[in-house]
Design a protein that fits this description.
Strand content: under 5%
Distance between the termini: 45 Å
Number of strands: 5
Structural class: mainly alpha
Order of helices and strands: HHEEEHHHHHHHHHHEEHHHHHH
Radius of gyration: 23 Å
Shape: globular
Largest sheet: 3 strands, antiparallel
Helix content: 55-70%
Length: 435
């Protein structure tokens, strides 16, 4: 990359950091999800008392007490097994550095800095993966989408395990692609450790192992390395079982059983693809729908997209396999957001290069979304105004396409993309989470 290209990437990362930090302790509001406290409580208790203690709504615990902190009620249980402990240990360690060594002392202003830092690591990895698998422009566009889109930024500032799982998944992909032609036991161990840490972050983190296992087989990696990957990863799974047995085997089994007993079914697919959520509130972000569309269209070119498509599909399929048909919160999608950004950037740039109609999906999904949230929300919108905006938005593309003005068509597409990114920045900077 040239110095100018590096400067552009650094500038986008800086803008992404500003957007993630702006009002980060206010929105989403305290209590939008109390899971933020479940992780921090878990980490602080393990590090200060040597026992996993946190709040839980699961009925399988024997030891339960009541705690209210600043009007938020927490049913405290121990030993706590709702979530694996890695994210809690990370957040708890950070809280302890600021002297927040008891549950009432824990502040969102402190602990939310952890997922923001993790989101920045994910941002760097999004660019690196885009550069590896596509080209500089695609990588830059993917980074712009990931760094500025409202639903991506807001979910990326909340203390949830998915924000740790995301860089672990992206890192495993990057390392595998780097090592695949000259795989060694050291490289296998590193990838296996990332798989194991992903499972210690979230049970759905098993998607990292499954996707890596597929890629090892697909790329014809030697059997001894594939077995090394499996054994290293499963060692971490065994450690988690030992962790549960050490504190309370019966409660551990009961909690896992209760969590597994969910009503699953095909409606989960419709729910995931049609219900964009920022923590606990619906937010119809056009980039979310365009991201899913680009994800599904990427199956048409499996060989080009394989190294990002397989992990994304593995995680998506596991969500359908494990999540209830309705009622799940939006943070489960966080690990898919980087892939949405990558697939969308590739889809748009390929479309502009081939002079096809793909740019019209950007206008439909993102253009109309920004008309709704930028124009209508601030100025109102009459029927005549809306029709005029549609004509102004679509007619230049239709005319340039019909007249085969290919250079003009590509320039218009680039202008539209960057204009919508500016719209993203305005929307994200001014976002206020509904009470």
């Amino acid at each position: 990359m040239t110095k100018l290209q590096i400067l552009l990437v650094a500038s986008v990362l800086f803008v992404g950091l500003i957007l993630r930090l702006h009002n980060y302790s206010l929105y989403p509001q305290r209590g939008a999800t109390s899971d933020e406290y479940s992780y921090s409580f878990l980490g602080v208790s393990l590090l200060t008392k040597g026992v996993p203690i946190s709040w839980s709504a699961v009925s399988g615990y024997r030891h339960r007490s009541d705690l209210t902190i600043k009007n938020l009620y927490f049913p405290i249980v121990y030993p706590y097994f709702d979530h694996p402990p890695l994210n809690g240990l990370l957040v708890g360690s950070w809280a302890l550095l600021f002297g927040q060594n008891t549950f009432p002392k824990i502040e969102l202003e402190t602990i939310r800095l952890v997922p923001i830092f993790l989101s920045m690591i994910s941002s760097v990895l999004v660019f690196m993966l885009g550069l590896r698998f596509y080209n500089y422009k695609t990588a830059l566009w993917a980074l712009l989408i990931y760094s500025t889109t409202v639903i991506f930024v807001m979910n990326g500032r909340v203390v949830l395990a998915e924000n740790l799982l995301t860089p672990l998944l992206l890192g495993a992909i990057y390392l595998f692609y780097s090592f695949r032609k000259n795989m060694t036991f050291k490289g296998t161990m590193v990838i296996g450790i990332l798989c194991g840490l992903a499972f210690w972050t979230k049970e759905l983190g098993i998607a990292v192992l499954l996707s890596m296992f597929y890629l090892f087989i697909s790329e014809k990696i030697k059997v001894k390395f594939t077995l090394g990957l499996i054994s290293t990863s499963l060692f971490f799974v065994l450690l988690y079982v030992i962790y549960g047995a050490y504190y309370d085997w019966e409660v551990f089994k009961k909690v896992i059983s209760i969590q597994s007993d969910r009503v699953v079914g095909p409606e989960t697919l419709l729910y995931l693809t049609s219900t964009p959520i920022i923590i606990n509130k619906l937010y119809y972000d056009g980039w979310y729908f365009l991201g899913f569309t680009s994800f599904f269209l990427s199956f048409l070119n499996y060989h080009k997209n394989k190294f990002v498509l397989v992990p994304a599909f593995a995680y998506f399929l596991l969500m359908i396999f494990f999540l209830t048909e309705r009622g799940e919160m939006g943070w489960y999608l966080i690990p898919l957001f980087p892939f949405m950004a990558l697939f969308t950037a590739n889809f748009l740039i390929e479309g502009l290069e081939k002079k096809n109609w793909s740019i019209f999906l950007l206008l439909i999904f993102v253009g109309l979304y920004e008309v709704q949230y930028l124009f209508r929300a601030n100025f109102g919108l009459t029927s005549m105004q809306f029709r005029t905006i549609l004509i102004l938005m679509f007619s230049p593309f239709i005319l340039s396409f019909a007249l085969k003005k290919e250079e003009l068509f590509a320039k218009l597409g680039n202008i539209a993309f960057y204009a919508f990114i500016l719209g993203n920045i305005l929307l994200t900077y001014n976002y206020i989470h509904p009470a």
